[in-house]
Amino acid sequence: MRVHTSRREFSVGLASAAAGLLGPRETVAEAKIPPSIIGGVLVGVQSFTYRLFDFDRMIASMRSAGISSLELWGNGKAHPLHPERNPEADFHAVRRKLDDAGITVNAYCANFPGDATADHVEKAFVGAEILGARILTSSTEKKVVPRIDAAAQRHKIRVGLHNHWLGDAWFKGDKAQNFEGPADYEEAFKDRSPYLGVNLDIGHWSAAGQDPVAYSKANHARIFALHVKDRGADKEHKNTRFGKGATPIKEVLLAAKAVKFPHAANLEYEMEEQDPTEGVRDSFAYVRRVLG
Question: Bridge partners of 292?
């Protein structure tokens, strides 16, 4: 998941979100989606996948795929639920809408800039609580980690810190402050509480030259969420359909199954952003074949 959203993108998304965020609940008044647990592993989707969809359209797509679990990204363009910009009433409204559809929020994703205030961090944890999430995921910088850890201990919510391949063309940040490999996590976790863990994006991890299979096996107790995507072996490590790239998705999922991974493996399908529905269905079908 890329971290940055332009001001124009956010403004357009906020305007289009009004109907999707607080609109009629009748649009999702259908049978609840059965739990998407495959081979003992909870399979969800990261809502960055649906960044151009409002909530109703996202729910319809998840229903068509049969996915009942969601990692909700707080800065979605068409479905924003940002801890600083949206009041608690919006979080409650979204919770009701998702409950009606049978969708549970396995994690709330709130990305913190380097200058994130204590109030910003606190509101993110409150938002996670309202949504019913016991995990908060975040793309952030190491200097924010002490504030995140303090809030995690107060709220007793685990935090998965998200990794990226810092060689991606879009990345313009301070590499020393961001998370790419094992050494970054060792540094961040030193003298910190066990509420801090990893949101392991296996596509980025693999693109960065790391082995997500070995890391997940050795550190599964400290991994609080998985992002499942496939990236190629080409120079840019372009995103591909599941099973077509170089990311060892099958091996990671089977390792998760073997240890009875207690958190969610969230599909993050970054292609075809205008309508990723068919790609999500294809990705979920691939995962079902692996785990089923």
Answer: none
Residue 159, token pair as written in the block: 């935090």
- ∠ CA 126-145-237 to the nearest 5 degrees? 100
CA distance 255 to 122: 34
7-291: CATH topology is TIM Barrel (3.20.20)
- Through-space distance between the first and last CA atoms of the chain, rounded to whole angstroms: 27
Note the pLDDT of residue 30.
79
Neighbours of 118 (CB within 10 A): 10
- Per-domain boundaries in the chain: 7-291
Letter string b/e over residues 50-63, b meaning 16 or more CB atoms within 10 A of that residue's CB: bbbbbbbbbbbbbb
HEC assignment per residue over 76-116? CCCCECCCCCCCHHHHHHHHHHHHHHCCEEEEEECCCCCCC
Is the entire prediction scored with pTM above 0.70? yes
pLDDT mean over 173-199 = 97
Spatial separation of the C-alpha atoms in residues 279 and 61, rounded to whole Å: 11
Asked if residue 219 has pLDDT above 70, the reply is: yes
HSE-CB of 7 using CA atoms within 13 angstroms: 0
Residue 282 makes CB contacts below 8 A (sequence gap 6+) with: 241, 242
Residue 243's region, left for phi above 0, alpha for psi from -120 to 50, else beta, is left
pLDDT band at 2 (very low <50, low <70, confident <90, very high): low
pLDDT at 12 over 60: no
Q: In this structure, what are the phi and psi dihedrals at residue 44, rounded to the nearest 5 degrees? A: -125, -165
Q: Is the pLDDT of residue 18 over 90?
A: no
Q: What is the DSSP letter of 261?
A: -
Cβ atoms of 130 and 83 within 8 Å: the answer is no
